[in-house]
Amino acid sequence: MRALRATALIATALLTGGACSFMAPSDAELLGGVVPSATPPASGGDPGESKGGAGARSSGPNASGGEDDAASPPAAGGQGASASAGGEAAEDFSSLIPQQGLALWLMADHGVGDFDGGVAVWSDFSLNEADAKQSVPSLQPKVVPGPRDLSLLEFDGVDDQLSLSPGFADFSEGLSAFVIGSELSDQPCSSFLHLSKASEEQDVEVGRLHGALHYEVADDDVWGLQNTFGLDQLYLLGVLHEPSKAPVLRLNGTLMIEGPFTALPVVTARTSNFIGRALYNDCEPLHGRIGEIILYSRALTMDEQAVVQGYLQNKWSYEPPVKVKPGPGELPAAN
User: Fold this and answer.
1) How many domains does the chain contain in total?
2) Which residues are registered as beta bridge partners of 92?
3) Burial 232-265 (b: 16+ CB within 10 A, else e)
4) What is the CATH number of the domain that holds 160?
5) What pLDDT digit, counting tens, does each position of 91-139 carry?
6) C-alpha triplet 66, 69, 71: angle, nearest 5°
7) Residue 23 lies in a domain
8) pTM of the model
9) Residue 12 lies in a domain
10) What are phi and psi of 105, to 5 degrees?
11) What b/e readout covers 76-111, taking b as 16+ CB neighbours within 10 angstroms?
12) Which of 160, 189, 232, 314 is the most exposed, having the fewest neighbouring CB atoms within 10 Å of its CB?
């Protein structure tokens, strides 16, 4: 990240040339509209073939990286996934969200290898199977209770972090990122998802800066209105970066800012990839919680964005807010 700027950008809704609108969200307000979507299948439903396609994975890989053991969803109270006795069936979530270009899909309620209180493995339900891992117990995030009997991964802000496999090379067709996350302390900057070759080298980052949603690509970065990303509040963070267009940042479905750059991440294998940690000198490890991360190596269409956001809305909030008229750049509510 470039040296922290003393003054945050004044967010403007460039999509329409008008001023952007922002609704102060609550835990029950993850989106700006109602979008129909399927709910995740219950454990024991029709399983997909393990490692047979995107979204079809056994839910609890072991820490050593061997064969996956099937796991049931976390019970109320936020317990991590535990292996089902003798079972190896995989759950298939591929019908819930678009699969084309899906580069990473992490769900805190599925595929969490929770051993002795720490998360050693967080299974990726994309076809890449780029599982997030941490072999050092003292650096492992913890599983904690979340809304609606779901679980969250909590990072302590000291040294908790998960590493992702090398890759995430080609974003020439754009980038779409969705994160269900919260911040527990007011750090100058922190990262939910960080992909790079090394510190400040071909980096791609989604995080929080100046109390706002932040997105960075190499030497360029952008963030929304200062202090709109509050503390101890679960948000839906959204980034859409189309080819030859400025990135669009949304918080809970509401447009925060667009631009001011257009350059996509260059095509190169990224080898320093983390959840909860950034390689920026000014940033601290994440002190916060993550419920889900969905990353695409392409820009989703408006309809596809609505599907993903609708899935996350129905899963993570009690009921969506009622939006009679969308603000500039917002997804319209379904009829």
Assistant:
1) 1
2) 56
3) ebbbbbbbbbbeeebbbbbbbbbbbbbbeeeebb
4) 2.60.120.200
5) 789 999 999 999 999 999 999 998 778 999 999 999 999 999 999 999 9
6) 145
7) no
8) 0.74
9) no
10) -145, 105
11) eebbbbbbbeebebbbbbbebbbbebbbbbbbbbbb
12) 232
